[in-house]
Amino acid sequence: MPIMAAGIMLLIIGVFMFWSSESPVIFYIVPIAGVLFTIHEGIEIDMVNKRYREYTSLFFIYLGKWKPLPTVDYITIYKERLHQPFYVSSIAADTTSDSIKVALVYGKNQQIAIGKFESKVDALNLGIMFSKELGTKLLDYTSSRPNWIVE
Questions:
Q1: Which of 109, 129, 137, 145 is most buried, judging by how many CB atoms fall within 10 Å of its CB?
Q2: Global pTM?
Q3: Is the pLDDT of residue 58 over 80?
């Protein structure tokens, strides 16, 4: 909520500065660019109506179409490693980051990602909560030997 309030204030300041002809360009571009920090993407699941949507939000406006929640075969927790090379002129660097994702698995190995965590405990808590709510199994695929946490 504080990020949204800051974004609204930056937008107002940026628009005001834009119409003020004496202001240098940087004074209205920076505040308007600050609005971009209020844009979020996520997933929302409505358990009562058995539907979900992937949304993009700007301030208090959420955009995304609701879809029926498919019959979930099981929930999985797995590690994801993101490797990103960077090249600038003659300098090269790599960054690697690990995260633990939680996904609803249905159909022929189709997934709906519902969470991304740095902590395995947080991912397990979300997985257990959804497995109870949906009455389905939970597979921990974070180690070399996958095991069922909830069957």
A1: 137
A2: 0.69
A3: no
Q: Are 102 and 130 in contact (CB under 8 A)?
A: yes
Q: CA 48, 49, 53, 59: dihedral to nearest 10 degrees?
A: -60
Domains of the chain: which residue ranges? 2-68, 74-150
Report the distance separating Cα 105 and Cα 92, nearest Å. 38
DSSP state of 24: -
Per the structure block, which two tokens stand in for 73?
């075969």
Integer Rg of the chain from CA:
21
Indicate the pLDDT class of residue 1, thresholds 50, 70 and 90: very low
How many other β-carbons are positioned within 10 Å of the β-carbon of residue 56? 12
Single-letter residue type at 78: Y
The token duo for 149 is 């946490």
Taking the C-alpha atoms of residue 104 and residue 71, their distance in angstroms, rounded to an integer, is 9
Specify the length of the chain in residues. Answer: 151
The dihedral of CA 106, 107, 109, 111: what is its sign? Answer: negative
Q: What does the alpha-carbon distance between residue 133 and residue 104 come to, in Å, rounded to a whole number?
A: 12
